[in-house]
Amino acid sequence: MSPRGTGCSAGLLLTVGWLLLAVLPSARGTNVTAAAVQDAGLAHEGEGEEETENNDSETAENYAPTETEDVSNANVVKEVEFGMCTVTCGIGVREVILTNGCPTGESKCVVRVEECRGPTDCGWGKPISESLESVRLACIHTSPINRFKYIWKLLRPDQQSIVLVNDSAILEVRRENYPLAFQCDTLDNNEIVATIKFTVYTSTELQMRRSGLPVTDAALIFVLTVGVIICVFIIFLLIFIIVNWAAVKAFWGPKASTPEVQSEQSSGRYKDSTSLDQLPTEMPGEDDALSEWNE
């Protein structure tokens, strides 16, 4: 090989070596930079996960009492009692009262109002309004009035009743020369829940009944007034005697002692008369002595 060729190859080798030395540090720096960036990203992800876990834990801590409260409310036993029904027969309403677990902490609170039922037969009722010409009758019902079905019947003695065409809750009847009897059946789902009867008197009977009522009321009021006056008088008399007991005793004392003295005198006279009656009239031994002396 010639000296010139040897020198050229040596120069190439030196050039390649310098290039390798220049490339390797830059690549190493790039790797270091990428690793640093990757490490920083991992660190941020770790902090994000820690913050997320902290937030979840705080959220769980914040919501934990609410769940406890819900559980505690679910464990409360709600006791319910029912109020009195507004009617003694037919259909009415009553209150549903909560005695434990009221929302405002009260001892009792009304939860709702529900329907209640009693015996179906309500006997004989009174009209809602009446005059000398007509009378208005009403079936037993609750709101809403169109919820029920109503059947009106004209009652006849010893005969089958007549079903009227009117199917409303109110029936208006004109008075006749003879008394009439009506019956209303209230049905809910084709089941009779209430029955009531009415008597429609004639105009003459109505006037007689109206004229008889004031006399009875006047007599009753008079008797009650007299009784109250007598009771009040007796009470005041007793109070007066108790307050002025000394004066009353002084007033009645001499009068009460005079009969006692008279009774004592009469009893003494009676004793004297009885003692005189008991004295012997003759001496039994005196007669015997006289008879012996005469002999």
Q: What order do the strands of the largest sheet run in, or round the barrel if closed?
A: 4-11-10-7-8
Summing up helix and strand content along with how strands pair, one would put the structural category as alpha+beta
CATH class of one domain: Mainly Beta
One letter per element, helices H and strands E, the order comes to HEEEEEEEEEEEHHH
CATH superfamily of one domain: Immunoglobulins
Task: Give the radius of gyration.
Answer: 60 Å
State the total count of DSSP E strands: 11
- Give start-end ranges of low-pLDDT stretches: 1-7, 27-74
Report the mean per-residue pLDDT as an integer.
Answer: 73
Q: Enumerate how many helices there are, as a single number.
A: 4
Oligomer: single chain
Question: Could you tell me how far the N terminus lies from the C terminus, measured between alpha carbons in angstroms?
Answer: 237 Å
CATH topology heading of one domain: Immunoglobulin-like
Overall outline? flat
Q: Per CATH, which architecture of one domain?
A: Sandwich
Query: What proportion of the residues form beta strands (DSSP E)?
Result: 15-25%
Write up what this structure looks like.
This protein has 295 residues and is α+β, with helices and mostly antiparallel strands. Among the domains are: 80-118, no CATH class; 121-212, Sandwich (Immunoglobulin-like), CATH 2.60.40.10; 217-245. It is 54% helix and 22% strand. A 5-stranded mixed sheet has the order 4-11-10-7-8, with no helix packed on it. Strands 1-2-3 form a 3-stranded antiparallel sheet, with no helix packed on it. A hairpin with a 6-residue loop joins β7 and β8. The chain is flat, with a radius of gyration of 60 Å. The termini are far apart. Mean pLDDT is 73; it is low at 1-7 and 27-74.
